[in-house]
Amino acid sequence: MKYIDPHIHMVSRTTDDYQRMAQSGCIAVTEPAFWAGFDRSSAQGFADYFRQLTEYEPRRAALFGIQHFTWLCINPKEADDPGFAREVISIIPEFLKCDTVLGIGEIGLNKNTKNELIILEEQIALAETHNQLVLVHTPHLEDKRKGTRLIMDALSASNIDAGRILIDHVEEHTVGEVLDRGFWAGMTLYPDTKMTPQRATDVIEMYGSERIWMNSAGDWGCSDPLAVPKARVEMSRRGHTMSLIDKVTLENPMTFLSQSPNFKVNA
Amino acid sequence: MSDLAKTCPQTREQVINMYFLEHRAKLLDVAAFLDRIDRAQPGTASSDFREAALKGAIGVLIDGQSQRAKRVLELFSDATAEMPQSAHGMKGASGAVKTATGGGK
Residues A118, A120, A121, A123: is their CA dihedral positive or negative? Predict the structure, then answer.
């Protein structure tokens, strides 16, 4: 059994987690840049974080035979100050030259503010200028549906092909619109605020297995770095075929991510 | 319901056999949570928008219509179009909508 966890924040996880993920069949992870649980005080703090993502973390993952790829951005939670956000955005192009960077992410909205939207549009433009894939964070809880629609409108106003954009953290009330508009959809298996493996399996049954993947988004909060293999077990015990299980946990991530020339994985 | 009928590979009996105890326990958690609110010390507010939203969502569970999860999420969603300039001073997400109009489509 092999799988990819295409959205997990390994900087927040222990080395034990890499070991357990490898033992569970994980062959690759992709790690979007995100909020550290506190607001960084300078753009230099982001530069250090980007070095951690592009230099240190791939080496730590490789110790367990896992390939580590990353996405870079200023996350929406720290993007509410446009001046500061632009300072961070200015250092991103230098890091896009690193050979494990797949694109811009996870960009999006947090509280659906005008300031966040301005910076989202500027990071979409950055992705377009540098021909990068895009990984999108959608807001939590009551803000999700409104934020997802605002984000999709901003993305549709760009010249980036919808097939090169994955909109993450979809739930039952957003997944249909995301897929209908041609984007890829990510389901995050997160204990309290997002999806359970049971509900993610329901979504695949109702909306199909095209342009959709599952991830753990494991981070410093209550989360589970083994959520993807647990979802595989859930699909299996419900009677789904191994080919379908492999499609949504291995082949679909491979298909989307392989649009970046930097994504090279031997499955 | 017709477009979603038979999308689950299991029979009704298999679904119930596999998941009944798990969801019986979750339902009891909700029941105990509502009891706990009733037993709690009086607060400053007589009602809470989150409690009201939860009780509204419970109605969705037993209305006999399909896509309950989607409709519950819609009930909990912000249906306004306004965008604040900044998030400064805003609290984190609460999971339900405080406005008079509430959630919905």
Answer: positive
